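Team,

Forwarding the record for the chain on the shared tracking sheet. I've put the sequence and predicted structure together so nobody has to dig through attachments.
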Amino acid sequence: MKTGLNSLLLALSILPAGVALAQGAHTGHGTAPGNTPVTDHSQMQSMDHGSMQMQGGSAPANARDPHAYSGGLILEDGPYALPGPRQLRLADEHAFYGVLVDRLERVDNGEDQTLTYDTRAWFGHDYNRAVLKAEGDMEHGKLTEASTELLWSHALTTFWNSELGVRYDTGHGPDQGWLALGVSGLAPYWLELDATAYLGDDGQTALAVEGEYELLLTQRLVLQPRAELTAYGKDDAKRGQGQGLSELVAGARLRYEISRQFAPYVGWEWAAALGNSADLVREEGEATQETRWVAGVRLWF
């Protein structure tokens, strides 16, 4: 019994060496009888991997330029046009449209109630599109004042567009036509700005600047402060336009987005006539300042 145990211990003591020798002969690692070592781990650690040829390298001379579609080039024209029917269209080749009713609200100033609308629609591509803007007031079911603009919008930068077109006003005094030139876009800190200069009848000039900001209180509850400033180049008593700063409107609306396309809101607004325009308002026997409560809906599709 003791002799058998000694034999077993002797076999176990020599097993690792035999296994290592067998593994080395099978894999090429270690030393085989009559041969020199194939690979030494110490040599592998000292190898210079910088001299190895890695996958990749320089592109072939006839490779396509990855920026071929920048600078106004399209798939149907230019040195990279493909023969045969079109298989792919880029996003800036598609025409898009949209309608935004930014304000559709009932306005209560304590004495009268009016219905106010402010909407815009567009159709075109990423860089060029036609834009229609319309806003106005209605009292007792009749349109009392309206302003409509038809503009051509062109992308200047990623966040800014230029706008060129015409505007037509009705309601307060004789109707009036304008040429319009402006910019609109997104300023730093997500401030939306719209500034437009106008040239109207009889050499009248005007400037309108509008800004608004959306503060997300929750994912659905949004507070939207808004301000609008208007100025005219000269007096026009028939239309209630006074030279210099004419009108300032500021307020805030709190809306709840039932969906991204439909959001009812309530708000408060303060309006004031300034400068020579305030004098014209006093001559008509009206107040130069008023506070308004509004309730309405914002929607787009």
